[in-house]
Structures are given as C-alpha cells and as structure tokens.
Amino acid sequence: MAKKKAEGYLSAKESRRISKANRKITNEFEKQHKRKNVPESEYLTKMRDPANTLEIDDLHSYFYTDVGTVKAVDGVSFEVPTGKTVGVVGESGCGKSVTSLSIMQLLQRPQGQIVSGEIRMNLGGKAVDIAKTPIEAMQHIRGNQISMIFQEPMTSLNPVFRIGAQVDEVLALHNEEHRTKEQIKARTIELLQMVGIANSEGVYNMFPHELSGGMRQRVVIAMALACIPRLIIADEPTTALDVTIQAQILDLLRQLKDQINSSIMLITHDLGVIAEMADYVVVMYAGRVVEKGTAEEIFSNPCHPYTIGLMASKPVVGKKVDSLYSIPGKVPNPVNMPDYCYFKDRCESCVAGCDGEYPREVSVSPTHKVSCYRYYDAKEGKNNG
Ligand SMILES: Nc1ncnc2c1ncn2[C@@H]1O[C@H](COP(=O)(O)OP(=O)(O)OP(=O)(O)O)[C@@H](O)[C@H]1O
Ligand SMILES: [Mg+2]
C-alpha cells in the first residue's frame, strides 16, 4: 500500500512507482482476457443451485489507479433466482455499478479488473464463469443473455441516428434467427409497441432528441429486451425521470420481465422502488454486502445498523418529523479500508466485538444474512473476534 505524507498527498516519485507496479499487474490480466481460441472447458462451470440465473461468489473488482488500489467491490456474494427481481441498494460509491459492470465485463480496462471470485451465469444447458470468460466469448453473452439499462437514456442512444436504425442494429448484431432486413424492421416496431410507444412507426423514424426522457428510456428498454435476455441489469433505470413516468416504467419492466421470463437485478438508492419491485434485497456498503434477504425480511426486520439507518432516512407518508434522519459520518476511503467492520466508525450501536476483524455473515433465517457483531451469539463472538 502506498505510503502517504502527512497531508495525504503522494509524492511524484511514489506515484510513478505505483503506476509502474499497476502496469505490471494489469498487463498480466489483459493478457488473460485477450487470449484467442480459449477452450470452453476453461470457463464452463456449474450453478450451485440450477434455479438461479446468476450466482456471484466472493467477487473482488479493483481499480489500479495512480493513487493506489481502489477496492470498489471487495468480496460480494449474492444470487439472482430465475424469474425474480433482486434489488441492490446502498449509498453512492458503495460499488453497485462496479458490480454490474463486472457482470457485463464492462469495467474500465485496463485499470479496472475482476481480481478474484466467480460470476456464474446460467445459460440454460450450461453455465459459464464470467470472471474467467475471455473477451471473445463474452461478446456472445452480452446483449444476448444479459443486457443492461443505464440511468441516463442518452448514454445508450446515439444522438445522430434515428431510433429505428439503433434498435435494428441491436437485432442485426444478435441475429440468431437470421431475419431479413424487413423482418428486423417489423420486429423493431413490435418491440417499440411492446414498451408502450403508441406511434411506433413514427418513432421509428425519429431522432432521440425528438423524444421525451420517458420515451427515450422506453426505447432503451426495448433495445435491452430485443434479444430476450435471461438477465436484465437495470442501473438506476428511473432516476432521471419524474415520479409518474417512473411508476409507468417500473410497471413496464415488471410486466415485460414476466412476459419473457427473465430475471432483473435492479440497482437503485430509492427504497420505495425496491419495496415496489424487488423479491430479494441486497444491501451494500463500501464494496461489501452487509445484509441480504427477501424484501419482506429486509423491510420488516432490518438487522444491520446501516440498513436500519437507510430505512430511518426514508420519509414516510403521514409521519411528521422536524428533520429527516441522516447516517452520521462518511464512507471510509476506498484506497485505505480499515481492517475492522467498515461501518464501525459511523455505527451508533457498536458492541464489544466490533474492534475485531471484519464480521462474518450470520444467518438470521435461511434466506436472511447479516454481517454484524450484534448478531453473533456470545460463544461465536469469542471464537471469531
Ligand atoms: N473508473 C474508475 N476508476 C477508479 N475508481 C473507480 C472507477 N469507477 C468507479 N470507481 C470507484 O469505485 C467505487 C464504487 O463505485 P460505483 O460506481 O460502483 O458506485 P455506485 O454504488 O454505483 O454509486 P452511485 O450510487 O453513485 O452510482 C467508488 O469509490 C468509485 O470512486
Ligand atoms: Mg452507480
């Protein structure tokens, strides 16, 4: 780890030394990624539970930057059962997007890398470990099997091409059914209708700037669903929209998910959205999962002090308060994480064991897990703390 001067700045020499070390590490990773003709057996794997679409197991994704290694995702495990919606919540910078970009193999390379862990994706007859899948093979999975909806629709749409051409392109790129040009156009119009665009033939010939934000997000959803993916990752899909449109888009997403029987990983910092959409909830803090369970369990019995804080900082209709609760303090520096519980310095309900190493996962129920010393029983606390 980089030595820092008292003020927290790195010297130029130190920074150069880090860059050099980083290059060595990332070159090694890149060599692995770029290999051609890798036998499939190298990245084929088995799902732990065949009823899951995705299983993430102890995932570590780091950014090797000039100021040190950012451990953006530092040991994340959770699964997405087939046909279900899993909500991922946590405050800004906790690693939600980096987790989803890791699943898509879209981390900003070469500095961003999946360092260890498994991402098992169920492809029907077989399963692959995305962490080991070479770039070449990943191109067939991305878009076809997993697709992503981003927060701001204009990041996914090209302003200089007509809507129809952009959706057509997605279909042509993943043209497993060998459709002709006319058939592709017909399918695009059908998709635009499916996402609730009334004048779909007209919209086909429009440019993105001619549409409203909600319409654009519908187009993006149409593009994401074009190839009937098994997994849809929606990263803050409605944050850029006003509440009424937000509700419509969420309804649409839920309805389409059931229509094509896929699963959704829904990233949001809006607990209201989670409550409405999710079957399961994963709560992340500083690159780790601090609590997970069914939506019912997380909302009726939040256990981790961070989850409890999140719930308390949500306004409740009909409840009068002078000021809304906010969790004190700030997230630790991702380059320099403490060796104890990452939430300890902000926690208002610490117990004796909290000085010990990072707490392991404790089962509150078979589906409900929390990483917190408050749920260790006395004997366990002694052994692990
Ligand atoms: N390209 C990058 N280079 C270096 N660090 C990065 C990069 N991208 C993300 N990070 C860092 O990784 C951490 C996790 O970021 P991430 O984007 O996953 O947060 P998030 O949970 O999606 O937050 P938000 O709710 O604001 O979208 C942050 O500390 C961020 O600074
Ligand atoms: Mg994000």
Number of alpha- plus pi-helical segments: 12
Strand order of the largest sheet: 7-8-9-4-10-11-13-12
**SSE string:** HEEEEHEEHEHHHHEHEHEEHHEEH
Helix content class: 25-40%
Helices and strands: which structural class?
alpha/beta
Explain what this protein looks like in three dimensions.
- There is one protein chain.
- The chain is an alpha/beta fold.
- Helix content is 33%, strand content 21%.
- The chain has an 8-stranded mixed beta sheet, sandwiched between helices. Strands 1-6-5-2-3 form a 5-stranded antiparallel beta sheet.
- Strand 12 (362-363) and strand 13 form a beta hairpin.
- Helix 4 packs across helix 5, helix 5 crosses helix 7 (213-225) and helix 7 (213-225) packs parallel to helix 8 (243-260).
- The longest helix is centred in the first third of the chain and has 22 residues, at 12-33.
- It is globular.
- It starts with 11 loop residues before the first helix and ends with a helix.
- Residues 378-385 have low confidence and may be disordered.
- Bound molecules: adenosine-5'-triphosphate (ATP) and magnesium ion (MG).
- Residues 63, 65, 70, 72, 90, 92-98, 108, 111-112, 269, 334 line the site of adenosine-5'-triphosphate.
